[in-house]
Amino acid sequence: MLRYYLKLGILSIRANWALSALMVAAIAIGIGACMTIVTVRHVMADNPIDHKNEQLFHVQLDNWNPNDPYEEPNEPPEQVTYLDATALLEAGRAHRQVISFKSDRVVQPEGDGVLPFQEVVRATSADFFAMFDVPFRYGAGWDAAADRAGEKVTVLSTPMHEQLFGGEDSTGRMLMMNNEPFRVVGVLDDWHPVPTFYDLNNNPYQGPEAIYTPFSLAVTGEWGSSGNNSCWKPPEDGGYEGYLASECIWIQMWVELPTRADKEAYAQFLDDYVMEQKQLGRFPRDLNNRLSTPEEWMVNREVVDDTVSVLLALSVLFLVVCLLNTIGLLLARVIRRRSDISLRRALGASKAALFRQYIVEAGLIGVAGGLAGIGMTWLGLRGIENVFADYDFIQYLVTMDWQMVGLAVLLAIVSALGAALYPIWRACSVSPASTLRIQ
Amino acid sequence: MLKMKDVCKIYRTDTVETHALRGFSLAVEDGEFVSVTGPSGSGKTTFLNIAGLLEELTSGVYELDGRDISALNDKERSRVRNEKIGFIFQSFNLIPELNVFDNVDVPLRYRGFDAKERERRIMSCLERVGLASRPKHFPAQLSGGQQQRVAIARALAGEPRFLLADEPTGNLDTHMADSVLDLLKEINEAGTTIIMVTHELTLADRANRNLFVRDGEIHDEPPELHLAAAATA
Ligand SMILES: Nc1ncnc2c1ncn2[C@@H]1O[C@H](COP(=O)(O)OP(=O)(O)OP(=O)(O)O)[C@@H](O)[C@H]1O
Ligand SMILES: [Mg+2]
Per the domain annotation, does B198 fall within a domain? Predict the structure, then answer.
């Protein structure tokens, strides 16, 4: 019977093509508006390191002002001090640990007439690449020894590598930054974590940095942080040394703890560490350390901002308006088809049979609306891309994955069926007697 | 066999109550060809609607093949309509988007026959009404008489015991009306019980039995009175 209903549905859509086209358009526009925002939100809320979510933890220690929490009600600071970062890295109690920050450097490409340019560089300890599963095209990262020794090595992203050295393997080549030579040891493969979960400060949608250097090297070179930097009291001594010894927070710290037991042990270790520091007169607040998974950390930092949620609510409302419109069109169609309906009833169609026939037809309209809705979503995303063309990484925010395509079609079908229920109910209650009366 | 006892049908609207049928009692035996005549608004269509299970009755008893139909639910009523009753309408009521073959197919689809059985029945019914050569034509491409033949084929396809016709020749010229009536006679002689509402007494006369409806009541008219009425018509 399904094939029969499909055939009837197609015939009916063809026979009422204008009304059908209006319905498909109404659904497509509603789906387009909704799915544009859903897609952006989906990408924003995406956890790019989902497969290691249970093993990676962002570290927070509460070294803040005894009289005033970092954030109400009692949030520990979102970054750690140089003192704590280096002490915890040195202790090495986790399976892997990463401390990093971002800094601005001036890149001086080889060749005449190529102008130097400023670039954001991530200074990080050695485990960064292994911990975050960063893929390499050529070479590899550096090891802990190289980090400790402050070797002048660097890792480039593929676009940066191509910009500076063209297509060939550039490992072993030298790169000048702020008049210092760095040896390229690795080139990353395509890697676009959106958001950049490992550092959610500032704009987490700008994408990962294009240049990486060892952490200790950056510190010996007295590089400043170009990311967030907060202090609850001024450094006691002046200069870079004073800054390193201060209670200012500016370093992001992550640890990898493969098992639950590892996590518990590490939490205990952090508590012990802070208790020990209290002996030295630091950490005036109560114990308030925290280990957050990437997902928890993204929720905590509200990577999906409220504007998007408001837009989502508005777009859902818009979809509802489009569906109300569809209901009106379907009711109009039921009225036009009264004689057909009552004739089928007279010839032996039960209400249930009619219901199935019209549900299949509504489903067909839903599928058409969904497919057209994917087109509309694509247009909507291109619109957003144009409006925010200045942001380099907007292209990663406005891409539809298969999940979103599937969701668009599913939402369209559900919408069409939902919109069709009342009109179909009306259709099924057309009296079979009217066949003989409407002459 | 079709049997009604004291059947009443009242239509209620906000302001008026119409007693369309009042104490309607009759029995139609298998194989009969019954004509029903009567003035406009007397209740003929209402009677057919109730006989064909298209409408529920207000009070009284209606038995079809010995079964009280008032107890049936929608699904069962639809099934009885589908299996036992064929309808022929004044305005043919073919589905314009479907061709002749698919129009005749409609009641068979709800019966659940397989494709081969449906095709066999459709072609044999089209043969019977003389349209076997046009299964692919659409209703708009046929004359009124041909359309009514398609409708008759559709009514016959399910091999119903009863054929209910409401003014089947009302939209046809005399010549076509005669040939449609010849077809109905033939069908009746092959065993199908027919109840036909008509305005035209000459056509009514070709039935085995004539019923007369007036003000929602049914009368077996004495033959003289009937002939007198025919003479004045
Ligand atoms: N759905 C309805 N609601 C209210 N009254 C109705 C309805 N259907 C029919 N009637 C009334 O019932 C009465 C009988 O109508 P019916 O259609 O059975 O007459 P008829 O004998 O078929 O007439 P005609 O020869 O004009 O077709 C009429 O008075 C009509 O107005
Ligand atoms: Mg009538």
Answer: yes
Q: Which residues contact A313 (CB under 8 A, 6 or more apart)?
A: none
| ipTM field | 0.91
Q: Domain range spanning residue B162?
A: 28-55+72-231
Position B119 in a domain: yes
Distance CA B105, CA B110 (A): 9
Output the residue whose Cα is nearest ligand 1's atom 17: B45
| Among candidate residues B165, B162, B153, B158, the one with its CA nearest the CA of residue B193 | B162
Q: Identify the residue whose tokens are 């094939």.
A: A3
The CA distance from A385 to the nearest CA of chain B, in Å, is 46
Contact residues for A435 (Cβ-Cβ < 8 A; gap 6+): A339, A342, A343, A345, A346, B54, B87, B89, B93
- Per-residue pLDDT band at A389 (split at 50, 70, 90): confident
B67, β-bridge pairs? B64
Q: Do B49 and A436 touch (CB under 8 A)?
A: yes
pLDDT per position as a tens digit, A57-100: 999 999 999 999 999 899 999 999 999 999 999 999 999 999 99
Please identify which residue in the block is written with the tokens 């039960």: A350
Q: Measured in whole angstroms, how far is the alpha carbon of residue A416 from the centre of its chain?
A: 29
B207 in a structural domain: yes
> What are the chain B neighbours of A437 within 8 Å (beta carbons)?
45
Task: Specify the CATH number for the domain of residue B77.
Answer: 3.40.50.300
Q: Where are the domains of chain A?
A: 2-47+305-438, 54-292
Look up the pTM and report it: 0.76
- Is the Cβ atom of B110 under 6 angstroms away from ligand 1? no
Residue with tokens 């639950």, as numbered in its chain: A260
Q: Is the pLDDT of residue B9 over 90?
A: yes
Question: Between B75, B83, B89, which is nearest A435 by CB?
Answer: B89
Contact B110 A353 (CB under 8 A): yes
Structurally, chain B folds into a number of domains equal to: 1
